[in-house]
Amino acid sequence: MTALPEWLNSALPPHARHAGLAIARLADERGYGRGGFALSSPAFAPGEDLDPCFTADEEDAVAPPLEWTAPPPGTQELALIVEDASSTSEEPRCHWLVWGLPGQRAKLMEGEVPPRTGKNSLGNSEWLLPDLPEDETHTYLFQLFALDLPLTLMPGAGRADLLAALDGHVVASSTLVARYTKSEDDEDGWDDDDFE
């Protein structure tokens, strides 16, 4: 497994530096955050934990809401890839592949179905709910790419297909880090506060 480029190492926290991340293959230092291009969520601050309503800890869980600033002029489309940066395999576990997003300032509402989605690591075209063993913590990297052309990729494509389609067409990129820990409380529905 090759190391991340130095610019990306300094841009990401230590626990989000999986060498196989899509951004390591597709983006460069010049385009990272270009023109103030930034990804955020009203549901969590960078580096904070995902609420259980976005994980397998809740029965009716959905994808978290996301919003982004205006990409550089000339952007034709945006694509989003969410990966588990704590994966131990050569390629990180893929939780979400999204493309067809407008090349402008916009957002995805909580649970909103994106224009086009590809197959996650389980082969489903949807948000793959984080699900971990008890008391284990993983870091998830939301990666947003601004493209210089609209993609012709059909819905249901896999990670390799999307990466190939994006290669050489990324003009700007941005990331957002989230964490998730499955606690003992999530297993039985009780919280320690219930007993105080």
Secondary-structure map:
Blueprint: H1 6-11, H2 22-26, E1 39-40, E2 66-68, E3 77-84, E4 93-102, E5 106-108, E6 116-117, E7 137-147, H3 159-166, E8 170-181, H4 184-188
Antiparallel strand pairs: 1-2, 2-5, 3-4, 3-7, 4-6, 7-8
List keywords for this structure.
196 residues, alpha+beta, Phosphatidylethanolamine-binding Protein, five-stranded antiparallel β-sheet, 8 strands, 26% strand
Describe this structure as you would to a colleague.
By secondary structure, the protein is of the alpha+beta class. It has one domain (6-186): PEBP-like (Phosphatidylethanolamine-binding Protein, Alpha-Beta Complex), CATH 3.90.280. The protein is built from four helices and eight strands. It has helices spanning 6-11, 22-26, 159-166, 184-188, and strands spanning 39-40, 66-68, 77-84, 93-102, 106-108, 116-117, 137-147, 170-181. The radius of gyration is 17 Å and the shape is globular. The termini are far apart.
Would you summarize the structure shown here?
This protein is an alpha+beta fold and 196 residues long. Strands 6-4-3-7-8 form a 5-stranded antiparallel beta sheet. A 3-stranded antiparallel beta sheet has the order 1-2-5, with no helix packed on it. The chain is built from 4 helices and 8 strands; from the N terminus they run H-H-E-E-E-E-E-E-E-H-E-H.
